[in-house]
Structure formats: structure tokens, C-alpha cells
What does this fold into?
Amino acid sequence: MSTKIRKVAVIGSGTMGHGIAEVTALAGYEVVMVDVAQDLLNKALERIKWSLDKLAERGGTISKEKVSEVMGRIKTSLSVTEAVKDIDLMIEAVPENIDLKKKIFSEADANAPSHAILATNTSSLPITEIASATKRPERVVGIHFFNPPVLMPPLVEVIKGAQTNDEVAKRAYDFVKSLGKEPIMVNKDVPGFVVNRILVALNSAACLLVTNNVYSIVEIDSAVKYRAGLPMGIFELQDFTGVDVGYLVGFAVAVRDPMLRVPCPLIEELYKKGWLGQKSGRGFYEYKGGPYERANIPREAGEKVDLVLIFAPAINMAAWLLREGIASREDIDKGVKMGLGWPKGVLEYADEFGIDKVVEALNQLYSKYNYDLFKPDPLLTQMVQEGRLGQKSGKGFYDYGATGVTEFKEIILKREPPLAWIILNRPHRLNT
Ligand code: NAD
It folds into this structure.
């Protein structure tokens, strides 16, 4: 059943769909894009053309001739039935509504060739339930792109539903690689998958600390940005992506998973007031200078913040993902580096802080607030018992050798006499 993927149907041509169609056509596949009205499809084609023109202008990422060649590979259709009849892969990107997605999958299943793989780009709905609308649940898989799908961020999560065949997941993984993207494999269909679970853990714990006046918004943002090196503050990022997006994804995953149920009245209040972040001039911060103004976060504001307390819930979530076999150590760290632009993986932060310190911080949060998210994962407590405390003990999630000195991973030195290589390794920044 390993027919080569040649033709791909992308269902929905909105924010994600048109970008997925673009990267897919750029990689040489035939694409058919489906939506409910021709004007929506025309608008999507215009957006793709604009984006390709930009790539051609910007120092020749692609040539001018390639723009028309790529556009020539994208067809449009108003019918799922018609569009899927000779495809090898479908990627669905219609709005986040389970009934709508099931309807599309049922129609695609009835009309696509039996070898075709049916994938969904959902951020928060169960792959297994979407697959249940088909007679081929073993050929249904999650392919979760991040916004925007073209260029950055490079990460794509490939998610197995309860019945997804390993070979199908592997083919989806290889397809993502062929787009020049960086896939990680999510072995179980858990709410929020890997990256959003870690992000929701980080965001909701930070929100709780602000609500309880432990730290202010700007103190936390300053600390994670200037001391931990994240590209944006926790609240600044939510303003950037949209308070509504964060609220709705957080809500959708919390409904399905008690571990993610840490209430954040602060974000709910903003959402209800329509203070949706940069796009509406106000969110956690005010943007008087227009939507492109950056939040004002002074460097010194975060000096007193205990970074371990801020990161511990996200680390606890990562430990849970690892212990449950949902993703590998490398994929969890790759997920936050490639998906969120973190300079280090969440497990690398854990090793740096010290696993004992992480467990202490979690116990402190758990005894005070009593949410499941803060209960130290058995993997972490076991590591402490075994003396695997991270960098300081030479062994944690990673090995650091007898000296406890970490290799500086952004600069890798490789010697094969008479040759030597100095490799500048910053994939999360596309090696800039
Ligand atoms: P969107 O609203 O921008 O686009 C959805 C498109 O689907 C619209 O053009 C709409 O007309 C079309 N559509 C609606 N019903 C349809 C039907 N029956 N047949 C064909 N097309 C139909 O939504 P989006 O932001 O692109 O999100 C799409 C999916 O991607 C969702 O599942 C979302 O969770 C997921 N996702 C979104 C983001 C993001 O940041 N926007 C990131 C990752 C994943």
C-alpha cells in the first residue's frame, strides 16, 4: 500500500488551508484546494501568489518562473467529492467544528481511492473521533501545521489516532519532511498534542501566579524573555497570536482533559471584553501606537522572578508526555524549539534548573493551589530519588559526562583528522 504521494486535496482555503496548499505545491505536489465559494478560492489563490512573489523578490528563495510553475500546480474545486477522487492524501483545514469535520471525512472516505490517507489539521479536536466518521480509521492521521504554514515556524506535529496504522503515520511524517518542514511524531491522540499542551501548562500557571499577585504580567514576561531567552513574553505572545485564539484552544483542551483545567479568569475577562491583543489595540498590554507596536517590557522588571516556578508546570507536562510514551525526549524538545522558537528544549531547561528544584517548585504550587497540573510527575520524583538531578549531577533527561559541563550545542566541533568542522547549529532560527 505504499503508493507514492502525488496529488493532495486541501479542504478549506482560509488562514491555514491556503498556506498548506502553497507549501505543498512548492514541494512539487499537485494540489486541489476546496472551499464553499469560488470567491473564497480566488482570494486564497491571490494570497498564495502574493506570498510566492515575496519569496521570489526576497533574494531569490525561488525564481520568478517557479512562481507560475507552482501556481499551475494548484487547482480549485467547490466539491469534496470531486476533489478527492484521484488523490493520495487529503489535508482538511476547515473551521474547528467536530460535526463539520466528520461530515467532510465521511464524504472524502466515500469518494477517495482506498489507498488515500485522510489527514486533519485540527488543533484541539480528537483525531480518533474524526476518524470514526470513516471506514478507514487506520488511514486517518493528524498533520498539525502551525500558523503560518509557509517558512516559520518549521514544526509540524504528526498525530496518531487510536487506530492509525504506523506505516500511515510514517508516510505522513515523510510527506512533511518532503515539504522541508520539521515533523515530530505524537504517538497518542491527547488534547493539545505536544506543543500546545506544554504552552497551555506554561500559560495557565503564569496566569494563576498573576491572579494570585505572586508576580505581575510584566515581571513574568521580562523574566522569560531576558533571563530564559524565550522569543516573547508569555502574555506578550498571547497578545500577538490573539487572546481569543489562546482562550478558545485552552478551553477546548481543558474540556477534554482535567490536567489542563487550571482556570484563568484574567484571559476570560479580556476575551469577554473583546480585548484580543495587538489586533484590537489592547489585550494584556495596551498598543496605543497601532497593531505593530511591541509591548513595553523592561529588562530589569523580571530580576526577582523565580524562573523555576514559572517553568515547572511546563516541565511537569513534558515529563508526563515522555513517561506516557506520547513523544520522545528529542521530539518534545524539538517541538518547543521549532514550534515556539525557544532557544532550548523544555527538558534541557529542566536539567539546567535541577530536577530537585523543579519538584520543589511543583510541590509548592500543588500544596497551595491543588491542581493536577502541579502534582509532580512520577518520572520527576523517580529521577530525584535516583540522583538524576540534571546538569549538576551529570545526568538528567540528558547525559552531561563526568564534569557536568554541557556541550555548547549551538557550536558543534567535529574532528575527523585531517579535517575539522565548526558547525553553527541554530535550527530554531533557521541557522541565522
Ligand atoms: P479559517 O476560518 O481561516 O478557514 C477555514 C476555511 O474553511 C474557510 O475558508 C471556510 O470557508 C472553509 N470551509 C468551511 N466549511 C467548509 C466546507 N464544508 N468545505 C470546504 N471548506 C469549508 O480557519 P483556519 O484558521 O485556517 O483553521 C482551520 C483549521 O486549522 C482548524 O481546525 C484550526 O483548528 C486549525 N489550525 C489553525 C491555526 C491558526 O492559527 N489559525 C493553527 C493550527 C491549526
Observations:
- Residues 193-407 form a domain with the N-(1-d-carboxylethyl)-l-norvaline Dehydrogenase; domain 2 fold (CATH 1.10.1040.50).
- The longest strand covers residues 140-145.
- The radius of gyration is 22 Å.
- DSSP finds 17 helices and ten strands in the chain.
